[in-house]
Amino acid sequence: xxxxxxFQLYNWHIFFANLVGGITIGSLYALIALGYxxxxxxxxxLNFAHGDVVMVGAYIGWFVLNALGSPLQPVLPIVPLLLLAxxxxxxxxxxxxxxIERFAYRPLRRAPRIAPLITxxxxxxxxxxxxxxxxxxxxxxxxxxxxxAGKSGIGELFHSIxxxxxxxxxxxxxxxxxxxxxxVALSLFVWRTRTGKAMRAVSFDAExxxxxxxxxxxxxxxxxxxxxxxxxxxxxxxxxxxxxxNPYLGFGTGLKxxxxxxxxxxxxxxxxxxxxxxxxxxxxFTVGYLSSAFSDLIVFTVLILFMLYRSTGIRGAPVLSKV
Amino acid sequence: xxxxxxTPPPATSPQIGVDEWxxxxxxxxxxxxxxxxxxxxxxxxxxxxxxxxxxxGLVCAIPVLTTNSYVIGVTADTMLYVLLAxxxxxxxxxxxxxxxxxxxxxxxAAYLYAELSSAHYNIHWPTWQSVPFVIAAxxxxxxxxxxxxxxxxxxxxxxxTLFFLEIFNNFTTNGYSWDWLGLGAPHDITGGPTxxxxxxxFRGFGHVLNNRPSDYVWVGAAGFAVVAILxxxxxxxxxxxxxxxxxxxxxxxxxxxxxxxxxMLLAVAVGAGVAGFAGTVNGAYYQxxxxxxxxxxLLITVYAMVILGGAGSLGGVVFGAVVVNVLLEIxxxxxxxxxxxxxxxxxxxxxxxxxxxxxxxMLAGLAAFGVIVNQVVGALWPRGVHGPIxxxxxxxxxxxxxxxxxxxxxxxxxxxYQASNYKIGNYAFVLVIALVLACTVVKGWKRWxxxxxTLWGAAFAWENTLIEQNATTRPLFLGVILIxxxxxxxxxxxxxxxxxxx
Amino acid sequence: MLKKVVATAAIAALVAAAVAxxxxxxxxxxxAKTSPxxxxxxxxxxxxxxxxxxxxxxDQSNWEKLFINSWNAGKAIPGVPKKLHRVKLTLANLGxxxxxxxxxxxxxxxxxxxKNILGMVGFAGxxxxxxxxxxxxxxxxxxxxxxxxxxxxxxxxxxxxPLKYFFRVVPVNAIQAKTVPFMITHLKLxxxxxxxxxxxGEAYGIGLANDxxxxxxxxxxxxxxxxxxxxxxxxxxxxxxxxxxxxxALLGANTGFKFVYAPTQxxxxxxxxxxxxxxxxxxxxxxxxxxxxxxxxFHTVGAYLSFFGPAITAxxxxxxxxxxxxxxxxxxxxxxxxxxxxxxxxxATAISEECAAVHGKLWSNLKTARGxxxxxxxxxxxxxxxxxxxxxxxxxxxxxxxxxxATLFQIQAGGKYKELYAVK
Lengths: 323, 502, 424
Description:
Chain A has helices spanning 2-9, 12-43, 50-67, 78-105, 114-135, 170-192, 194-204, 206-211, 216-242, 249-264, 269-289, 292-309, and strands at 140-141, 160-163, 166-169, 244-245.
C-alpha cells in the first residue's frame, strides 16, 4: 500500500484530478453550508432539515429534465434546459424553506434551545419519508451522461478539457462556476442591500433589531428563502455531477455540509466557503489515497478536533456572552 | 375551574417581572383538566413504589397470561426501550444536555458483551462477571466522551455526540479487517457488516436463560425496577437538585458554587451506565449484535419516546416508551393499524374541542361531508367507491361495524391496494398537509369548519395509501410526533413546562 | 362529569378493542381437524420494506404478490404442472426488517405466531437471516431467500450455527467467482499485470471481491483492492457513491490497470463507475456481477457481467408486463426481484405436493406441518421458471441452495447481452 501511495504522490495528474474533484464537491458543500450558516446566524438554530431540502431540489430538477424529454430527446438545447432546471429547483426549494420556517420553527422562537433542534430532526424525517411515499425509494438517475446535442460519443457535460495530462470535465467546471457565481451573488446581497444589512443586524442581536424597526419575521423568512434556494441549486448540481438520486441522499450530504459550516465558523459566510472547500478536499484526498471507509472517519475526527480545540471554527470570532 | 372556561396556556414566552413560581401558579391551581388531569392527580397521590410495583407486576404477568411469542417478544423489546428512555432522560430531561450519541453507548455495551461471551474470540465469561464489567466500561466511555466536551454548550455538545455516534457506526461496520496501519495480519474486531452471532445468553445459579423471549421480559422488568429505584433516589438527592439547577440556568448554577462541569460528566456517565445494562440485555436476548441495530433511526425513536412522555419525568418517559413502541408494532399490521388512526382522531377531538356544542356540530358535519362526497363520487364514477376495505380480509373488519361505516362514508377506489393507485392517496396526503397548515393559520369558527375536510382528507389518505405502505408510515409517524409535540406541547404529556426567565 | 364518563368509556372500549385484536392472534398450536391449511395456506415475506433499501423489499414482495395472484387465479405459470392441485394462498404477513438483524428477530417472532403461515419468502439480507433465522428454525418454518448470498448461512462457521430451514434460489458468491479464471484467459492477462478490485462495503461485495482477489493472486496478478461503500442501505453514511468512486476511477485510468472487477448490488453504481472510468481515459475491460444486471440502469457497451443462470433478459415477457402493469415501470428486471417469484413458486409447489401426499391424513400440530413442508421443499424440482431456466436445490449444498451455475455475459449495443461462457 505504501508503494502505491508513494507512486501516486509523484503522479501529478492524479493529484490534480483529485484536487479538481475535491474543489467540485467542496464548492457544493460550501453552497449547502451557506444555508446552514445563514440560518444559524439569525436564529441560532441548526437546521437538520436543510440536507433534505437539497434532496427535494435534486428531485425537482429530475422532474423538469424528464418532462422536457431529456436525456435522449431534449426539447430545448442544453443551456436553457439546465437553467430552467436550476430556476425551478431554486423557486421550489425556496418556497419549501419558507413554509418549513413558518410552521415548524416560528412557534418555537422562545422555546428552550433543545426544542427547535428536535423539531428540525422531525422535519428531516418527515421530508425523507414523504419523498419515499411520493416518489418511491428506488434510486433514480439524471442520465445526463447521455445528454448530448449532436452525435458525439460521450455526453457533452462529461467531455473533458485537457492540457497534456491534466484534465477537467465540463460538468465540474459548470458546478464550480455556478457555485462561485451564486456565492458572489449572495455576498453582494448580504453586504450591499438593505435587506442584507437587516440580516446582519438580526444575526447580531435580534431583539435590538426589532426595536430598531426591522421586521424580524420577514428577515428570517428571507434568510430561509435564500438558504433553501441555494440548497435547491446544489441539489440540481449534485444530480448533474453524480447522477444518482434517492430520498436519503440529503442526510449524508447535509451532514458533511454541516461539518463544513461548523469547521469554517458557523454564522460566518466566508467561513462556510472555506470550510466547504476544506472538507471537500479532505474527503476526496482520503478516498483517493486511503480508502472510502476512512473518509467518513477522518472527516468526523476533523470536526471533533475543531470542536474541542477551536470551537468557533476557522473564521469564527470568539463570542462574548453578556451575563 | 368551570368546564367551559378555557385553560390558560402553559407559559412558554418569557414574561418580564414574573418568576417561575408565579407563572406556574395557574398550573398548580387549575392543573391540567379533563381525563389526563384526573389521571395525573391520581398518579401524584399514589406512592411511587406502588406505581412501580404495579407496572412491573403487569409486565411480568404478560408471559404468564399469553403464549403468543410475538406479544411476549414485543414486551421484551418494550422493556429494552423503557431502559433506554430512562437512561436518556437522565442526560436530556434532568440535566438538560442534548446527547445525540446515546445509542453509541448502547451499541458499545452490546458489542463488548458479545465479544466477551461468544465464539468470536472464544471467551465465555460468566454473566455475573461480564455484565458488571461491561457496565463499568460503558460508564468509563461516557466519562471519556464527556470529558473533552465539558466546555461545550448546547448545540456544540449535540454535534460532538452525534458524530461520536457516526464514528461508532463506522467502526462497527468496517472493523472486520483492522490491520493496525499495515503491520501484521488483519484483525476482525467487530465482525463487520455481518456482526457477531452466537452470543451466549445470560446464565447464573445453574440456569441458562434460553427461553426467549419470556426470560428476558423478566430480566428487563427486574433490571428496570432496580434502575428506577436507584435513579429515583439520585433524582431526589443533592445531585438531582443540582442537575435541575444546571438545566434551568447553567450560569446561575455555577455562580452558586455548583460544580457544573463535573455534574455534566456525571449525567452523561449515569445515562451511559443505564445504556450499558440495556446493551448487555440486548446482546443476550438477540444472541447476536449487528451494526445496523445501533444507528441514527433508533436514536430518533428513543428521543420521540422521551419527548412524548415528557423529558424530566421518570414515569412520563416510561409511558412514552410503552406507547410509542406499542403503536409502532400495531402499525405493522394494516388491519389493526387503522384503529390507531380513528382512535387518535376521536381522542383528539374529545380532548381538544370545547364546548360540547361545537364538538357535536363538528362530528355531524364530518359525517355529513363524508356521506355527501361518497354519494357524489359514487354517482359520477361508480368504481370509485367499490374498492376493498380490508387487506387479507378478516371477519373483524370485512363485515363489522367499521366496514359498514367506511363503505358509506369513505371513497375507496376499486383497485385501492395496487401500487398504481397509491397516487391518489399520495396527492391527497400532500393536500392534507396543506390543509393542516392552513388550519393552524386561520382562527375561530373558520378553523373548525376547515377541520372537517382536513379530517376527512386525512382519513382518505390513511385508507388509501398510508395503511398499505405502513413501512413508510411508521417513520413518518415518528417525525410527525416530534414536530407536533415540539410546536404545541414541548413538555410532552407528563413533563413540566419550562419557563425561560428574562 | 358526564362527558368524562363518556370519554373514559369510549377510550377504554377502543383500547380494549385494539388489545383484543392484537392478542387475539394467539397461536394455538393445534391445527383444526379438517386441515384448513390445505384449503388456504399462508405465506409471509421478510425484508426491508422501509429505509434506504426499501426498493429491494418492495420489489421482492410485489413479485411474491404477483405469483400468489396468478396462482390463485389459475393462470398458467412456467414450471407449474397442470395436474398439480393448487392450494389457495394468501400473503398473511409482510414483515419489515429494514435490513436490521435485530428487527428481523421481531419479524420472525411475529411470523411464527400466525397460525396459517407455512412458509416465508425472505429474509432479503444475509444479516437478517443471521438475526431472525434461529427463531424461524426453532418453529421449523421454511424460509426461501431470493437475494441472500452469504456463503455460510446454511453451512455455518466458527461463530455461527447453521440455519437448517434456510433456503435460497440464488447461488452463493463462490459459484459466481468461478467466471473469473475464464476472464483471465479470455483477456490474456499475464503474470505481474495490475488488476483493480473494488467492493461495495457490504457482505455481498466483500465476499465476491475476496474470492476474486484470491483467484487473481493465484494467477500471479497484482491486485489493488479498494472499498467504496454503497450508501443506499446506510442513510447515515457518506455523501454518495459517485463522489467516492471518482478518485478510484482515476486510479483505473492512469496507473496502468489491465482489468477492473467491481461487484456491487446496485446497477446504477456500475453505470456511474464506468462513466467515470471512460471520461478519465480508462478504456480497458470492466466486469460487474449479478447485482448489476439491469439493462435500464447499466448499459455500458463492452462491459462484462456474471450472472447465475443461462440468460439474463429471458424473464418471461408475459409476467414482466403483468408486473409493470400492476406495480409500475421501474424494476421488472431487477435481478433480486424476480427470484422471489421463483422462491414463492418453490414454497407453493412444496405445500401443494405435501397436501396431495397426505390428503386425508392430519398433521398433529403446526410445527409438524411446517416441518413437513420444509422436508418436501428440499425435493421440489421446477422444470422451468419465469427466469428461463430450471431450479431445484443442490445436493452439494445440503439441498439449501440452488443447483445452478454461473454465466458470463458481455453487454452489446442496444441493451442486449451476449453469452460468452457458462460455468458447469
